Amino acid sequence: MPYVITDACVKDFVCVAECATSAIAPSFDDSDSGTASQVYINADECIDCGNCATVCVHGAVFAESDLPADKAGFAEKNRAYFL
Question: What is the pTM of this model?
C-alpha cells in the first residue's frame, strides 16, 4: 500500500530527501516546486518504506490504507500529479 501526502504538507521537502526511491515530487530544484501546492507521492514508485511518514513532523503523510475519511481524496490527487 503506497503512502499519500495530504493538505497538511508545508513543502519543506524533508520527505523528498528521505524517499528511498525518489517517488516524491516535485523536488526543491524542480521548475514547478514554486507553484505546486504540496509534494506528491507516485504510488507506482512508492515501496512502502515509511521514511516519508517518519520524517514529516506536520502529520501530512499516511499509508493509503490509514487515510482519514476526510483525506481520502488525496490518494487520487497524488496519483493525478504524475499523469
Answer: 0.95
